[in-house]
């Protein structure tokens, strides 16, 4: 089992719900996807706006229940058969599926398109890497 945060109704932080789900495995990956054991996830203004019903929710891109979180940092656990340049055990960071449905980065395990990930520089902690992707993309 694994922990994930979901949103069943729009509103304040109290609407975020911690649930237990089956942990994804390598067999759940598409050919271009990576399973990341998440150690950090960023919370950006777009996350907050979307959680309250604005942001990406106001565009119709988000439906409930929603699995929030786009920024993620962690360690690769498995890669899809078509993935090159990333390997199990490697530290990575990225923006998962933005601006679509949400990358579900507020979870212990996240499936992310390989193209959305890069190796984490050794000079960054996972906490630093977890807040970098969306801010860097915005800048």
CATH fold title:
Quinone Oxidoreductase, Chain A, domain 1
Q: Which spans have pLDDT < 50 for at least 5 consecutive residues?
A: none
Superfamily (CATH H level) name: Medium-chain alcohol dehydrogenases, catalytic domain
CATH class: Alpha Beta
Rounded mean pLDDT is: 94
Strand content: 25-35%
Radius of gyration: 14 Å
Q: Write the H/E string, N to C.
A: EEEHHEEEEH
The CATH architecture would be Alpha-Beta Complex
- Total number of beta strands: 7
> Structural class from helices and strands?
alpha+beta
- Give helix % range: 10-25%
Strands ordered across the widest β-sheet? 6-3-4-5-7
Total of domains: 1
How does the overall form come out from the CA principal axes?
globular
Report the total helices.
3
Biggest β-sheet description: 5 strands, antiparallel
N→C terminal distance: 37 Å
